[in-house]
Design brief:
This protein is an alpha/beta fold. It folds into 2 domains: 21-112 and 220-311, Rossmann fold, CATH 3.40.50.150; 119-217, DNA polymerase, domain 1 (Orthogonal Bundle), CATH 1.10.150.170. Helices cover 37% and strands 12% of the residues. Strands 1, 2, 3, 4, 5, 6, 7 and 8 form an 8-stranded mixed sheet that branches. Mean pLDDT is 87; it is low at 1-15. This is Ribosomal RNA small subunit methyltransferase H. Its EC number is 2.1.1.199.
C-alpha cells in the first residue's frame, strides 16, 4: 500500500512550502532566456524561485483562490511572468501562443494552501463543508458520500485511496446518512474513525478516504495522464519535464510514462526479443525524495517523489492509458 498523498499534520499549517525545490530547479535549469510552464501554480513557490533564477514563467491553475499569489508575481516580475487560468491537462493548448517552451513542472495533489483553508473541505483536521472541488464547480465530495451506493463508495475508496477497510467504512457512511446527510469534514472523519478505530501513532483513519474522495471529485488521475502527454506534445527536443507526486499510485503513473517498458510484461529469455519502443524521454532521472533537513522543516514533504526527463526528437505519442497503471474503480463504466 502506498502512502496517502500530502498527509496532514496535527498542527495548523503555515505558509505553503514547495517541496524538493532545489531538486526541481536542478532538473529544470531555469536560467535567463528559458521559458518554463508551472502547470500547477498553487501558491507560486516554484514560479517565484524560477523567476528569481532569471527564467520566464507561465503559471497555470484552475483554482480561483490563487489570484493573490498571481498578482504578487505579476507585480514583482511584470515582464517575465504570465498566468493562464485552466487545467494543466490542457497546458499545450493554453500556452500555444507563447511557444517555444523549454521546460514544464507539475506538482501533483492538493497544496498546503488548500488544506489550510477549512472552507475548501479538503482537511479532516478542520471543520468545513465537505467540498474538495479545486475548481469550485461540479460534483462535490458531499455529493459522492451521500449519493453513491455502498458498493460504489467502497470501490472508490479502495481504488483511489488503497483503503483496505473500504467496505466497512462505506457501510458506516450509508448508515449515518440515513439519519441525516453528511455535510461537513469533521462529521465524515468521525464516522470513519468510528468505523475502523484509531491506534496511537498511526495516521488519521480518514486519511485514505479523504484522499480517494478528493481524487474522484477532481479527476486527478485522468488530469495527470492528460497533463503528462500534453507536456510531451509541447516540448521539443531537449525540453525538460519535472513531476512531483505524493502517492505511490501517482508516482507509478509518472514512472511508467517516462519509461513505458516499466509497465510492460517481463520478457522471457526463451522468447523472441520484442523491439523496444522509441524513447521520448532520455535521460530519465531516478526517483528523488526529500532529505532529512527538508523533512524537519516541512513534514508534509515526507511522501514527495520527483521524477524528471529530457525530451528526445521522437514524435509525441497519442494519449494511451495502457501500461500506466491508472487505478480504475471496479464496476464503473
Amino acid at each position: 500500500m502506498g502512502k496517502p498523498s500530502l498527509p496532514e499534520t496535527e498542527e495548523p499549517g503555515g505558509p505553503h512550502v514547495p517541496v524538493l525545490l532545489a531538486e526541481v530547479l536542478a532538473a529544470l535549469e531555469p536560467v535567463a532566456g528559458r521559458r518554463i510552464v508551472d502547470g500547477t501554480f498553487g501558491a507560486g513557490g516554484y514560479s517565484r524561485a524560477m523567476l528569481e533564477a532569471g527564467a520566464e514563467v507561465i503559471g497555470i491553475d484552475r483554482d480561483p483562490s490563487v489570484a493573490p499569489h498571481v498578482d504578487a508575481l505579476k507585480a514583482d516580475f511584470p515582464d517575465r511572468f504570465t498566468f493562464v487560468a485552466g487545467t494543466f491537462s490542457e497546458l499545450d493548448t493554453l500556452v500555444a501562443q507563447l511557444d517555444p517552451v523549454d521546460a514544464v513542472v507539475l506538482d501533483i495533489g492538493v497544496s498546503s494552501m488548500q488544506l489550510d483553508q477549512a472552507e475548501r473541505g479538503f482537511s479532516f483536521m478542520r471543520e468545513g463543508p465537505l467540498d474538495m472541488r479545486m475548481s469550485k464547480s461540479g460534483t462535490s465530495a458531499a455529493d459522492l458520500v451521500n449519493e453513491l451506493e455502498a458498493e460504489q463508495l467502497a470501490n472508490l475508496l479502495y481504488a483511489y485511496g488503497e483503503e483496505r477497510k473500504s467496505r466497512r467504512i462505506a457501510q458506516f457512511i450509508v448508515a449515518a446518512r440515513q439519519e441525516t446527510p453528511i455535510t461537513t469534514t469533521l462529521e465524515l472523519a468521525r464516522i470513519i474513525e468510528k468505523a475502523i478505530g484509531r491506534k496511537p501513532g498511526d495516521a488519521h483513519p480518514a486519511t485514505r478516504s479523504f484522499q480517494a474522495l478528493r481524487i474522484a471529485v477532481n479527476g486527478e488521475f485522468d488530469q495527470l495522464v492528460e497533463g503528462l502527454f500534453a507536456a510531451e506534445r509541447l516540448l521539443a527536443e531537449g525540453g525538460r519535464l519535472a513531476v512531483v507526486s505524493f502517492h505511490s499510485l501517482e508516482d507509478r503513473i509518472v514512472k511508467r510514462f517516462f519509461d513505458p517498458d516499466k509497465g510492460g510484461p517481463t520478457a522471457s529469455r526463451h522468447l523472441p526479443q520484442v523491439e523496444m519502443a522509441p524513447r521520448r524521454w532520455q535521460p530519465v532521472s531516478k526517483a528523488v525524495k526529500s532529505g532529512k533537513s527538508e523533512l524537519a522543516r516541512n513534514p508534509r514533504a515526507r511522501s514527495a517523489v520527483l521524477r524528471s526527463g529530457v525530451r528526445t526528437s521522437e514524435a509525441a505519442r497519442a494519449v494511451d492509458l495502457s501500461g500506466l497503471g491508472v487505478p480504475r474503480i471496479r464496476g464503473a463504466a
